[in-house]
Each structure stands twice: as structure tokens, then as C-alpha cells.
Amino acid sequence: xxxxxxxxxxxxxxxxxxxxxxxxxxxxxxxxxxxxxxxxxxxxxxxxxxxxxxxxxxxxxxxxxxxxxxxxxxxxxxxxxxxxxxxxxxxxxxxxxxxxxxxxxxxxxxxxxxxxxxxxxxxxxxxxxxxxxxxxxxxxxxxxxxxxxxxxxxxxxxxxxxxxxxxxxxxxxxxxxxxxxxxxxxxxxxxx
Length: 192
Description:
One of its GO terms (molecular function) is hydrolase activity. Keywords: Hydrolase. This protein is α/β, with parallel strands linked by helices. It has one domain (8-189): Rossmann fold. The chain has six helices and six strands. The chain has helices spanning 23-30, 47-59, 72-80, 110-115, 143-152, 177-189; strands at residues 8-12, 35-36, 65-70, 90-94, 130-134, 156-159. Strands 2-1-3-4-5-6 form a six-stranded parallel sheet, with helices on both faces. Helix 5 links the parallel strand 5 (130-134) and strand 6 (156-159). Helix 2 crosses helix 3. The two termini are 16 Å apart.
């Protein structure tokens, strides 16, 4: 397959969808031709609806795609990858949420996520090169759990240090490091 010099970056948000001061929003504005999975109007906790929205976004993109997911968007991505409908060039999965353990106040309850079809978190090698970014102090997932997910997904692991959940509440708005991580991921996907 011919390598596309300019793959489309597709942002896969978490359950809170588009957040104005989130690093994904800043990056989507900064990267020409990038796209973001559309937010859901209904069934916001439905895994099937989230996976369907990701699949619809992918079908609208003609060339190669690099997925950039955050939080539960990482889980949407790995659920989609159980039955992929197209080839993905690479995936950057940033601070996945551990929904198999109780989340902090203000986040969905485990029982609601189970009803929504999110559990268990898939633990199968992903069909595309993947880099997982882990935080040492993420309130939504312990570093060791993220490392275990990365191993199960056949992904490389990047230790981002103490960055919380890499969301506006943790001070990320802009996250300049993501540009270098995307470049590294794309170079690794190309085999060089």
C-alpha cells in the first residue's frame, strides 16, 4: 500500500466529547485537515453508539488515518479495533480511563458503564502500531494499569510523568508534547 504523506489525524474524545480548552481541541485547530469524532446527542454512555460514531467518522475520510484518542476515547478505539472496518496507520492513546474500577466523583458510575456495554476493557493486540501515554498521577487510571493495557494491546508505552488525566482540570489546555509524540508514532509506523 502506498504511504500517504499527509494522513488525516482523527481525534477521538472521551465521554465528555468536545471540551473547548482541551488539548485535543487545540490540536484539532492547529492541524490542517484533521477531524474529530462528532459528539453524541443521545446515548452518551453507549459503547455501541460511540463505536458507531467513530466508524462513521472513519468512513468519511478517504486516505490514511492516525487516531488520537483520550480517556474513554481510548476505550472506544480499542472496542472499534475488535472488528475494524478499515486500515489504520497508527494510534495514539492518551491516558485511558480505567472503567473497571470506580472513577472519581463527577464521572459515570461503573454500573452505568457496564449497562452501556463498556466492560470488560478489551485486552487484545491492536491491528495498528500504537503508542499509549500514561500519567504517574492520573485519578482515572493508575500507571500500572495503563502499562498493563499497553502490554495487552501490543503498544509502546510513554511515561508522561505527573500530568494528571491530561485534561483542562490538570492544566492541559495546550499540550505541546503531543506534536513530537505524533511524529514519533508516525515514524515508527513507517518503519523508520
